[in-house]
C-alpha cells in the first residue's frame, strides 16, 4: 500500500471514529420500572418524582432514554411474570419498587443492574452482601429497617396509653413481615402489651381481622408497609374509625386521609434520589460500588381531628415531635 493511500485511509478512520464513539455513548438507554401496584394514592407521584430527577441529570425520553413502567396487582405470581417480561426486553437498568419485585428480579438476573426503592433490611433478605458494599448487581434505597417496628409500637402507646392488644397487619407471607414483627414483639414486653400478627390477602381478610381485633379490650393496630397498604388504605382507615381502634400507619397519606397518625418517610423523595443511582449506572458505575442508602429524615403526622373522635389527647411531647398536625 502506498504511503499516500495509507494516510488517506487513516485520516478517514480518525474522522469517522469520534462520530462512532458519540453514537455509541448517545444511544438510547432503556430503563425498566417494576412498580407493581398502581392504585396507591401516591404511586404516580413517586414515578413523576423519579422522572423529574432523571431530567435534572440530563436524561430525556425524547432524546436519550426510554422508560417502560410495569404496573400490576402486586402479588408474587403477577410480579414474577411481569419481571420476566420486562427482563426479556433487555433493559440497561431496572428500578424496583419494594421487596417483592426486587426479590423476583434477583432470582432472574445477576447481570442487569437493579436499583431498589422501599426495601427494608436488604441484608436480611439476602439482596446485598452489606449496606456499604452491596457486592452484586443490586443496590438502592431502604425506607425502614425492621427496628422501626418498635418505634411504631412506642408511638402508638404514647398517643393511646390504654392500648393493650395490638395487631400488626401486613400482606400474608410478605418477606419483610418477620423482621418487623420480631422487633415489635421485643418492644412489647417492657410495655406490657400483647401483639399478634395479622397476615391478610384481600379486603375480606382485612375486614375479618379488624373485626376480631375490635372484640379485644383496648385494641390498637400497626399497619406494616406491604402492598395491602396502598391497595386498601381507604378501607383500613374507615374500619379503624368505625370500630374506634387507634392505629399507626407507615405512610403520610393515611394521616392525611383520616388515619390517626403516620410515621415514615417521604417516598417520593426516595424515588427522586434513586434517579441519581440510575444515572451513575447508565454512565458506567457498577451497582456493587454504590452503597445502599437509608433515609436521613422521617416524618410524623398526627390527625388531631381523628384523635378527638377517638377520645384521645395528644401528649405535648408527641406534638413537639410532629412534622405536621392535621386539624
Structure description:
Strand 1, helix 2 (43-56) and strand 2 form a beta-alpha-beta unit. The strands form two sheets. The protein has a seven-stranded mixed sheet with strand order 7-6-8-9-10-11-12, with helices on both faces. The model is unreliable at 1-25 (pLDDT under 50). It is of the alpha/beta class and 327 residues long. The termini are far apart. Helix 3 (76-87) crosses helix 4, helix 5 crosses helix 6 (177-191) and helix 7 (203-214) packs parallel to helix 9. The protein is built from 13 helices and twelve strands. The chain has two domains: 28-143 and 267-289, Rossmann fold, CATH 3.40.50.2300; 148-264 and 299-326, Rossmann fold. The relative contact order is 0.13. It is elongated, with a radius of gyration of 24 Å.
What is the topology?
Blueprint: H1 3-25, E1 29-36, H2 43-56, E2 65-71, H3 76-87, E3 93-97, H4 99-108, E4 114-117, E5 138-141, H5 148-159, E6 165-171, H6 177-191, E7 194-200, H7 203-214, E8 219-223, H8 228-231, H9 233-242, E9 247-249, H10 252-256, E10 261-264, H11 267-282, E11 299-303, H12 304-309, H13 316-321, E12 324-326
Helix pairs in contact: 2-11, 3-4, 5-6, 7-9
